[in-house]
Amino acid sequence: MTRDIIDINDFTILVETANSDSVIEDSCYFDEPVIAVAFYGSGNVDLEFKYPTSSKFYNYTKGLALSFYSDQEVICTHTVSKDCPLECIVIATATRNLNKLPNQEGELFSELLEQLVNPKDHYVEGPSFFMTPEMQLIVDSLFNIKYEGKAKMMFFRSQITALLSHFFGQLALNKSQNFQSVDRQRLDEVKNILAENLDNPPSLSELSKIIGLNTTKLKKEFKEVFGVPVFKYLQNQRLTTAHDMIKGQNATVQEAAWHVGYDSLSSFSNAFAKKFGYRPSQIR
């Protein structure tokens, strides 16, 4: 388990990674009340917040952007296993610093995370959603920085700012669209179905029948909520999963391509290079 803490202006950035051949639990807490946003990378760990009045559990964290309020009474626990490594970036600010944040960031917190600015419990869950491809790309880059020294810190600072900007931008977009909760649940169901069937996904018409939305509405609302068309999201998930398999040495390039539904190795390699900037054979 590695945990790096970096201070940028009035933000504290927590970068956590962990790999284990057995099931382990790692717990931490904040030493003062904070408002935070957690971004989960390629791993898929279990997450639990325990506090005096209750607890909150998340069992699908891969690709999740989760905002929350937490005080000193909250214990955050990650469960890490061989198949579910941890990659997490937490951007947090103490509540006492909200009025001092630069570039009107404090106003964004108050406008879009009002329930966190005025908490009613030790832990309060704020808005959460699965990251757009742009956000996922930034998170991936933060766990694979090739620079050193001052250049590394300059790159890190710029990417953290971009990541937080994307989060608030997507939050504002989702809020302005004001989708009915039942439709949002259906769209989240589409993402789960695709994630579980990367090698043989259902067609748009089949997805429409499963969730009870017509094809036109499914395509329109999925793109409006998540920023990409349905099958662009699918491709992103396929390539990200394949990247994780190859990087973790759990599969060869050919095996990873087959696992996520690519019959052509050249098509897989070209799509991979377009997304990540290098070919799958270059990972190792």
Strand content: 15-25%
**Helical residue percent?**
40-55%
N to C succession of SSEs: EEEEEEEEEHHEHHHHHHHH
In the predicted model, the low-confidence regions spanning at least 5 consecutive residues are none
Structural class call reads alpha+beta
Level-1 CATH class name of the largest domain: Mainly Beta
Question: What is the CATH H-level superfamily of the largest domain?
Answer: Jelly Rolls
CATH topology of the largest domain: Jelly Rolls
Q: Main beta sheet: strand number and arrangement?
A: 6 strands, antiparallel
From the alpha carbons, calculate the radius of gyration and give it in angstroms: 19 Å
Q: Label the CATH architecture of the largest domain.
A: Sandwich
Task: Describe it.
This protein has 284 residues and is an alpha+beta fold. It has two domains: 176 residues, Jelly Rolls (Sandwich), CATH 2.60.120.10; 102 residues, Orthogonal Bundle (Arc Repressor Mutant, subunit A). A six-stranded antiparallel beta sheet has the order 1-2-9-4-7-10. Strand 1 and strand 2 form a beta hairpin. It has ten helices and ten strands. The two termini are 22 Å apart. Helix 8 packs antiparallel against helix 9. The relative contact order is 0.11. The protein is globular and about 55 Å long.
